[in-house]
Every structure is written in C-alpha cells, then in structure tokens.
Design goal:
elongated; Rossmann fold; ABC transporter transmembrane region fold; alpha/beta; single chain
Length: 609
Amino acid sequence: MFSRLRPLFPYLRRYWRNLLAGGLALIVYNISKAMIPLLIGGAMNDIQRNLSASRVEHAALRLVSIAGLAAVALYLTRRIIIGASREIEFDLRNDIFSHLCRQPAEFFQRHRTGDIMARTTNDLSAVRQLLGPAIMYSANTVVFTALALPFMLRISPRLTLFAFLPLPFASVLVQYFGARIHTRFERIQAMFSDITAQAEESFSAARLIRAFAQEDAQIDTFETSNQEYIRRSLLLARLMAMLWPTLELVLGFSLVVSLLVGGHEVVLHRINVGQFTTYMVFMVQLTWPMIAIGWVVNLVQRGAASVIRIHELMTEQPSIDDRYADPALARSSAGTATRDGDCLTENRLPPIAGHIAYRHLHFAYPTGPEVLHDITLEIPAGSSLAIVGPTGSGKSTLVSLIPRLYDPSPSFRDAITLDGRPLHQYPLHMLRAAIGFVPQETFLFSTSIANNIAFGVPAPPGQEAALEQQVEAAARITQIADEILESPSGFRTIVGERGITLSGGQKQRTAIARAILANPPILILDDALSSVDTYTEERILAGLQTLMRGRTTLLIAHRLSTARNADRIAVLIKGRIAELGTHEELLARGGYYTDLFEKQSLEEEILTT
C-alpha cells in the first residue's frame, strides 16, 4: 500500500509543519477525550459512596471544561489537517496542469480529453480525501487506542483480553473488503473517464449532432455508459454496505462481551462500579474510531487507485523537451520587447533571423507510415515560401516540425536547422516565441475578441490602452476590425465556447491577428485563409505584404491566389517536393502547379460569368 502512495510523499514533506501541528492538536484532543471516562468513573464511585453533592458538581464542571478543550482541539485538528490536504490538492492540481502543458501534441492524441479531465477532477478529489479525512481518522484511532488501552489493562487485563478478542476478525474483514474496494473503484474511475469523454465530445460537437439529427442516438449512447457506471457504483455500494454493518456487528459483540464479563467482575468485587463504568465508556468511545476504519479503508483504497491513475500522467515524460538545448542560447534569449503603439514595429525578440533549412528529412508519426520522404528545402531569412499540393500530402506536417509540435526520429534530429543550428538546440520557449503559428483548426478561447487577439502578449502595467490600439491595428490588417466594431461591445464581445458566435472566416482572421500582434520573425499560416472569400483574401494579403517584408513567412494554401505572390512556391505531392520555383517558373514547367492554376482560373471565370 505504501508503495502506491509514494508519489504523495514529496507533498506531505512540503507540509510537514502543518501535519505536525495538526498531530499535536489531535493528541491534545485524544488526551482530553481519554480523561472523560476517568472523570465519569470517579463520579460514579462518589455517588455510590454517598459523598457530598459538591464533589459530583465539581466533577461535572471539570467534565465540561475538558469537553470544551476537546472541542477546541478537534476544531484545530480538522482545520489544520483538512486545510493541509486542500493545500496539497492545490499544489498537485497546479503540477498536473503544468505537466500537461509541457506535453506534445501526440500525447493528447493518445489520451482522450475526458479521461484527462476525470483524472484531474474526480481522481484528485479522491486523493484529497485520502490526505485529509483518511489520515486524520486513522491517526485518531491509533492515538486514542494507544491512550485508552493502558487504562483498560490497568482496570482489568482479563476483561480487556475478552473485549478485544473479536477485533482480529475486524482486521480480517478490513483486509478482505479493502482489496475488493480498490479493484471496484478502479473500474468505476475508468468508467467515469469514459462518461466524461463522451460528454465532452458531445458538447463540443453539439452543432454537428443537431445537423445530423443524432441527439437521440447520443443520448442513448450516454445512457448506456451511465447505466454501466451506475452498475459498477452499486457493486461498490453493496460492498461498503456489507463492510460497515459487519464491523458494527463485530464491535457490538465486543461490547456485549465487555458487559457480560465486566458485570461478572463487578459481582465478584474484582473491580468496582466506577472502574466498570470507566471501562464501558472507553469501549463506547472506541466504537466510532473502530467503525471509522471501514470508512478509512474505503477512502484509502479509492485514494490509492486515484494516485495510480494520476501518477500515470505525471510519470509520462514529454517526448519534446529541452534536454538537448544549448544553455548559451537560453541565456541569450533574455532580451526585452519594445513597442511604439504600432503593432508593426519591430520588437527585440530572441536573436533568431529565420533562416530555415531541411536536409534529407524523413518523418513518420509514432503510429503510422512515413509521411515525408527525403525533404530538402531552404528558406532564407526574410523570404516567403508558399506550399501547395493535394490533401494529405504532408503540408501541415512539414510546417508543424518548425515549432517542434512534432519531432522527427533521432536519426533525423539534425535534419531541420534554424539559422544554421539544429532545432533541438533552441530552448522551446525561445523557439516558439519566435514563431507566429496559425493552424488549420482555429481555436478561440471563451473570452472577448480583444483577449483572444492579445493572447500571449500581456500588457505591461499602465500600458493597457497602448495594447488595445495594437489589437485594433492587427485586426485591421486581417480585415475584421470593422465587423467587430459593428457589435455593441466592440472588441470586448465575448465569442462563446471555441468562438461559436463567429463564422469560420471571422475565427480565422482573429487567429491571424493574434499571430500578427505577437510580431515574430517567423510567420506560419497553415491554410489560414481557407474560410475567407476571395475579395477579403485579397485585402488581407495586401495588408500582409508589408508585414511579410523582412520576415520569414510560410504559407500553406489550396487557392493559388494566396501562393502566387510568395518568393517561391513548393509543390508537395505524397510527401515529396515535386516542384519548386516562382509562380512564373512553375507555370512554365507545365506540371501539377500549371494544371491546378488552369482549373482554378476556369472556376473563377465560371463564377464571374
């Protein structure tokens, strides 16, 4: 069991002072609690001896004082220990989130979002219960038993032997039920992950589900999963329903034995009535801690199962990291950014010029065939390259390797260079800070348009107004500023979940404005104008012409109107560079590019007639 909980030890060590203070308060509480039976027993002897009422009243006052002290100590115990469990939960949640943020894209392809959410919510709650109530009640049972047992042995070793005789059966029950609780809770958590994943996918694809009238089918699928979750939960509930009453039966039998044997001891004058009363109060006080063992076993087994699931996430090291980064480059990236109110003003970014080169690159995803074959390509700093080709030819893969969203295999680690250095020598934060990337699938956060455009470019204190001007300037380049300002809230308009209130073209233009505002030396637009009409596309490209000067720009395009003004155009077919040259050079060759140009020209003529 302790080996399963080992991942939590660093967090427990971090809050050892809180746990120590809580432990001291717990000891004070149990000492106070252990004094109560002694006072009651002494009062019973005074009553039996017909002593003065003042002594009984004095004992009652002391009992009230000790009960008050026990209440204060119990409050401090719960506040400190439960508070420490909340602090550990806070740290653990932050560590999990930070760890997930460092994971590459392929990690999230292997793990469903719903499963990750379940581990970072439901499992984390189970761990908190383990670190709070489970620790507190376990320590409470151990400490009180250790305090009560000497007094009970002093009163009657024979009575104590008989009273504790049924307890080994309780231990066997705890072991028997504990293993089964652990197994069943693991199955419940796995099912909860599936339900969370289904719900997340259904909500994200709500419009698609409605478009295909699949609401009832999705509801039925979710109901089936939910019924399985309920079935597994009921199996655990039945197990717990058997554990608690069985423990109470064993402890009740122990009380019966204590009453019979203790009464016999009183009749034989081996112990007096006060001692017998003290003993029985101790037994009653021990009943709840012993019964609580069943609840603690449940919490520990649930927590242990959740620790394993969380540990699986935390031990998966990112496949893309800074292990080969050059420390000198990390030190050189400490430059400060400057802005003059115009988003087009050059910033002092990390010293990256933007010269990109591919040398005989081969690439395959971890679970698939080779996507790129012997790619050799050079993109001089400050130049622009358009990449065209049929769907599935590897265009997005080619540009995704530059910000290291994916890494080639170790044998081709040096096949991609930036300013003459292999990409892996750049620290990730330095490399990605120098790249403005607009992917095919545009993602917007559920916040205002201004916040979406300014994502990654926080305003320095006192310069919020200047950043707002830069946001609007970037939006004007992408021809979306006027549309935004037509709404009553302007740039403060909330876009909804994943930008649901915006059209596809508006989302793409917002994403391009976000990349423009970052003002990077390298700009990558992965088919970022596919949802924009031809007229708006021309206006955006005209605005980008100024921005692209002196900036390395990669454009993936299906429409040749986007690609024709680039310095060079690469035609990628089945993962290989089939053609490379300017627009005029490729037209003169009469290959794939020429055929594509003629088809699109014919389509435009048909649309205009």
